[in-house]
């Protein structure tokens, strides 16, 4: 049995098919962990969801910002963007089944494989959080997503404030910080205040900002955080990190890591993608 982590698919179903063929993936034998942004900007978002749904427990996803955006558009909370490619889902006969499946996916996963402990999120985690904290906070958001008043949660989900974590936060402010960290985070100030304006790679960080994973005192340094979201960062491998968004939708690659019993035994597998969107 093989376990794979896959970066942002963003509706690029043909690239996903080629990657799975390259991996010789079998849903009866293997397991996929897909790191969010399953949909949007690529041409086959509905096909991606149908494929992953059909794999059952062999496809284990986390939610990204584009997946949450789909739910907000579908519930009339947000307008579609000019670059969105969500109509194949929104107009589908099985729309309800796809949206219901999506809202049941978790915001984070904490797994062990061999000697490895891994925390899987779409974007990042704040420095004050342990892996246990991340999973507990993710569960609070998941309860809102799966609850009877999804529309009310989606209405209060958007915004850039509060920009820093405080254990005393409650209600929509608390959930908004968690969503922003798990699905949008790239840079922070040294005190852990999130920045959402800068999207360049980590080496191009403006003065006063650090990549979230380089903040001093980050409490998840003792495990491996596996994430996507940051195409300008691209592939990054460190003992405490695996970054897997390699810009498939922009004409880059779709990337997977075959997890081994140790970090040294992990293997990167990539397929080239057709460009579906032009940056900017």
Features:
about 280 residues, alpha/beta, Purple Acid Phosphatase, chain A, domain 2, five-stranded mixed sheet, globular
Show the helix and strand layout.
Layout: E1 3-6, H1 13-23, E2 31-34, H2 45-54, E3 59-61, H3 65-74, H4 87-90, H5 95-103, E4 109-113, E5 116-120, H6 131-146, H7 150-157, H8 171-184, E6 187-188, E7 194-195, E8 210-211, E9 224-227, E10 236-238, E11 241-243, E12 253-258, E13 267-272
Parallel strand pairs: 1-2, 2-3, 5-9, 9-11
Antiparallel strand pairs: 1-12, 4-5, 6-7, 6-8, 10-11, 12-13
Helix pairs in contact: 6-8
Q: Overview of this structure, please?
A:
With 280 residues, the protein is α/β, with parallel strands linked by helices. The chain has a single domain, classed as Metallo-dependent phosphatases (Purple Acid Phosphatase, chain A, domain 2, 4-Layer Sandwich), CATH 3.60.21. It has helices at 13-23, 45-54, 65-74, 87-90, 95-103, 131-146, 150-157, 171-184; strands at 3-6, 31-34, 59-61, 109-113, 116-120, 187-188, 194-195, 210-211, 224-227, 236-238, 241-243, 253-258, 267-272. β1 (3-6), α1 and β2 (31-34) form a beta-alpha-beta unit. The radius of gyration is 18 Å and the shape is globular.
Radius of gyration: 18 Å
CATH architecture: 4-Layer Sandwich
Strand order of the largest sheet: 3-2-1-12-13
CATH class: Alpha Beta
């Amino acid at each position: 049995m093989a376990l794979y982590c896959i970066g942002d698919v963003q509706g690029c179903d043909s690239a996903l098919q080629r990657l799975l063929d390259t991996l010789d993936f079998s849903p009866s034998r293997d397991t996929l962990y897909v790191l969010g942004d399953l949909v949007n900007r690529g041409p086959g978002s509905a096909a991606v969801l149908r494929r992953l749904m059909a794999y059952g427990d062999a496809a284990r996803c986390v939610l990204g910002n584009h997946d949450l955006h789909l739910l907000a558009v579908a519930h009339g909370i947000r307008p579609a963007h000019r670059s969105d490619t969500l109509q194949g889902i929104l107009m589908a006969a099985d729309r309800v089944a796809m949206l219901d499946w999506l809202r049941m996916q978790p915001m984070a996963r904490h797994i062990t494989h061999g000697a490895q402990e891994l925390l899987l999120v779409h974007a990042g985690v704040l420095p004050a959080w342990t892996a246990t904290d991340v999973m507990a906070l993710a569960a609070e958001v998941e309860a809102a997503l799966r609850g009877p008043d999804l529309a009310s949660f989606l209405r209060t989900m958007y915004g850039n404030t509060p920009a820093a974590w405080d254990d005393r936060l409650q209600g929509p402010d608390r959930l908004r910080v968690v969503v922003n960290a798990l699905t949008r985070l790239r840079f922070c100030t040294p005190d852990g205040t999130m920045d959402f304006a800068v999207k360049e790679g980590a080496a191009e960080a403006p003065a006063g900002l650090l990549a979230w994973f380089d903040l001093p005192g980050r409490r998840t340094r003792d495990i491996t955080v596996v994430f996507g979201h940051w195409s300008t960062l691209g592939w990054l491998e460190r003992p405490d990190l695996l970054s897997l968004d390699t810009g498939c939708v922009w004409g880059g690659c779709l990337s997977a890591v075959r997890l081994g019993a140790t970090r040294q035994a992990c293997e990167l597998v990539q397929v080239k993608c057709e460009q579906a969107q032009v940056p900017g």
